[in-house]
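User: quick one, fold this
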Amino acid sequence: MRSIASLTLWLFVIGTSLILGAGLYEALVVVPFWSAGAPASLAEGNPLLQVHVRAGHVFWQYFTPVLGLITLLAMLTSIGTPSRHLAWRLAATGLMLLVSIATLVYFRPVLIGMLINHGAGLTPEALAAEAHRMVDISQQGSPDSPVLCMAPWTGGPLNLWTDITVFDPGEFMGQN
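Assistant:
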């Protein structure tokens, strides 16, 4: 059970690292691209928008549910871990699970409506307001925000570091 718990923790740390990097890229490159000139930048005929839409749609569509599953597995395998690990694991995985759910339930549909469906029937003024609202939310700590993703990411390495610094080979081999 310990090796499965360790494996799921490593997958969790790697997955949250990828999400953090993708979130930083999106916050620094993609969001300013489509939000700066809204609603014109969200128009259906904008060929440059298609590059960002396809890249984000392909990555987030598949990786968010996969990371949610890895997070759930890491949370479930934390049962039975030493108490010094349990708090970090539950805090990090619980927060990331909330981030994944909020992303899939709220942010993904809103962004699909804005970027893929080009506003889905909103007036240009309403579309511009929605774009600016999404930018404000992402800068204030939305579930997609790199700032909020940093918290679960730090919990995983802290747990791994705790595991490494108190590692007892006899305990691992079942001799203690």
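User: anything notable?
Assistant: Residues 164-173 have pLDDT under 50 and may be disordered.
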